[in-house]
């Protein structure tokens, strides 16, 4: 499967059930709802012999009990530690199934729901499958009715999930956050994926489902929405009732743990529990090249970063009498220079120290210096094209190729799940996510250190740019006023021209009239003079 495009699987409608499933139900009070949930599980079409149900009483008063109508493989345990995550982890510790099916104590599954989930899990061992939940306000029945739809409809869909699925063509169109589909109400997960990702974070107040979904994604999971796995939620959820205050609490904590939620990390300089990128650098290559590379990384436009320096740090012993003769002087200098820099850590081996929750890992040879925006541009390329690996060609010679690598952790985790014996891991990454090569020069990598602007320099540049923008805006306003003045004056000129044309027309008419009068006068005088002359001649 490439990316999250699970459509290549096409699991058959009819299959031979072989995998076991553990349904984990955390519960706090609500005995009447729990009775209906267990009655719904007793009707499932998936074989009862392959199903176990674990109800976790999270400190209910009075304690919960198992009703008569329930699956045969149902047991009740108690978790005194409050919180849904703690209860789910307690149930997870008791689960023996190949698949873990999370189920809330107020969600009633339709009879074929678990079978619809398990059809996918028989097709691939690294899936997270979520059913479609509808929220009903119907009165709770004393016993679960035979026709669930008739009793619980009309009901509202889980609008947010439906919208997410529709916007991303069923989560197949390169979605940036498919893990958001992992909701605890009715989601099943391959147990090996859960083991790789780890249990739910019981330190979180809210958002545990999404945070675990993120870690499952980092472990290589593919997320599948299954419309045939239908369920009814008995009443509205807490989130539906109080979305704004719940988001406020949830976002305050998940921002530290889910780097993919970029909009929650708008601060331009602070550090987070799980950084967005970890850059791995060989710390033994010499103080000057290591410092040039690391300093440039720390001064770049991606502050959400950590640097992991590789080297035999536990063997260092400082020679205080003759430090200049210390054979490990450069290693001592690197250690001392970054000892108190919170974004720089040290590790003895290449495979240690990188948090599996970090989305991207850049492996960069020391002495190669990224430009201020180089890392940000590489991340944009990987995100926009859904790439699992971007190779940066730094140098090529007869001795070979020197390259840096930007790795997407989730793509490499998926590749490790599907790589064939003897197959190169990068080839498997190419199959599941894509691999690309780019030129170092195109992305601003160099071996010549340049003065770092730093935050003060960036601040000054920003202030100067703002001042220039204000000056240009003021000049533009002045020019707009001048243009308005010219327009007004042009209007006056046009009006004067019209008036002048009218006056000229009037004068022309008067002149013509005067000419005609003059001609009449001349004719009259000529006629009079002729008559007078004739009269004189006759006399």
UniProtKB/TrEMBL annotation:
Keywords: Coiled coil, Glycosyltransferase, Transferase. GO terms for molecular function: glycosyltransferase activity. InterPro entries: Glyco_trans_2-like, Glycosyltransf_2, Nucleotide-diphossugar_trans. The keyword Transferase applies. Residues 22-139 form the Glycosyltransferase 2-like domain. Its EC number is 2.4.-.-. CDD domains: Glyco_tranf_GTA_type. The keyword DNA damage does not apply. It comes from the Bacteria. This is Glycosyltransferase. The lineage of its organism: Bacteria, Bacillati, Actinomycetota, Actinomycetes, Streptosporangiales.
């Amino acid at each position: 499967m490439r990316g999250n495009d699970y459509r290549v699987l096409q699991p058959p409608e009819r299959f031979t059930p072989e995998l076991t499933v553990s349904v984990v139900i955390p519960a706090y009070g609500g005995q009447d709802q729990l009775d209906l949930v267990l009655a719904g599980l007793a009707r499932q079409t998936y074989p009862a012999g392959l199903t176990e149900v674990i109800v976790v009483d999270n400190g209910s008063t009075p304690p919960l009990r198992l009703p008569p109508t329930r699956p045969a493989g149902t047991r009740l345990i108690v978790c005194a530690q409050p919180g849904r995550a703690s209860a789910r982890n307690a149930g997870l510790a008791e689960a023996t199934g190949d698949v873990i099916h999370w189920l809330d104590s107020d969600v009633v599954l339709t009879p074929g729901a678990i079978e619809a989930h398990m059809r996918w899990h028989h097709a691939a061992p690294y899936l997270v499958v979520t059913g479609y939940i509808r929220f009903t306000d119907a009165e709770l029945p004393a016993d679960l009715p035979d026709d669930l739809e008739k009793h619980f409809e009309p009901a509202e869909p889980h609008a947010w999930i439906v919208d997410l699925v529709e916007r991303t063509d069923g989560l197949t169109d390169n979605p940036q956050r498919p893990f958001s589909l992992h909701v605890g109400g009715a989601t099943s997960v391959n147990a090996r994926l859960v083991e790789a990702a780890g249990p739910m974070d019981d330190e979180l107040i809210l958002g545990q489902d999404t945070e675990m979904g993120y870690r499952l994604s980092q472990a290589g999971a593919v997320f599948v929405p299954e419309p045939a796995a239908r369920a009814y939620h008995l009443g509205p959820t807490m989130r539906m009732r109080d979305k704004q205050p719940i988001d406020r609490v949830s976002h305050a904590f998940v921002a530290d743990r889910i780097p993919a939620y970029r909009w929650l990390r708008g601060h331009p300089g602070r550090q987070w529990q799980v950084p967005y990128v970890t850059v791995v650098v060989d710390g033994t290559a010499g103080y000057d090249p290591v410092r040039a590379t690391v300093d440039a990384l720390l001064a770049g436009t991606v502050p959400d970063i950590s640097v992991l320096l590789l080297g035999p740090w536990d063997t260092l012993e400082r020679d205080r009498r003759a430090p200049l003769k210390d054979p490990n002087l450069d290693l001592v200098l690197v250690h001392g220079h970054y000892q108190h820099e919170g974004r720089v850590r040290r590790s003895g081996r290449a495979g240690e120290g990188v948090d599996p929750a970090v989305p991207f890992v850049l492996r960069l040879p020391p002495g190669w210096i990224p430009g201020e925006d180089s890392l940000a541009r590489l991340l944009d390329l990987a995100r926009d094209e859904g790439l699992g690996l971007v190779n940066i060609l730094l140098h090529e010679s007869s001795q070979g190729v020197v390259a840096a690598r930007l790795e997407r952790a989730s793509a490499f985790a998926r590749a490790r799940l599907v790589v064939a014996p003897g197959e190169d891991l990068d080839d498997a990454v190419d199959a599941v996510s894509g691999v690309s090569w780019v030129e170092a020069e195109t992305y601003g990598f160099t071996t010549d250190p340049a003065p770092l602007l730093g935050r003060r320099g960036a601040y000054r540049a920003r202030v100067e740019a703002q001042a220039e923008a204000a000056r240009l805006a003021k000049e533009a306003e002045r020019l707009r006023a001048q243009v308005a003045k010219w327009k007004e004056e042009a209007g006056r000129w046009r009006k004067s021209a019209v008036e002048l044309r009218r006056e000229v027309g009037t004068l022309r008419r008067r002149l013509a009239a005067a000419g005609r009068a003059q001609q009449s006068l001349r004719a009259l005088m000529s006629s009079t003079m002729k008559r007078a002359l004739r009269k004189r001649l006759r006399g």
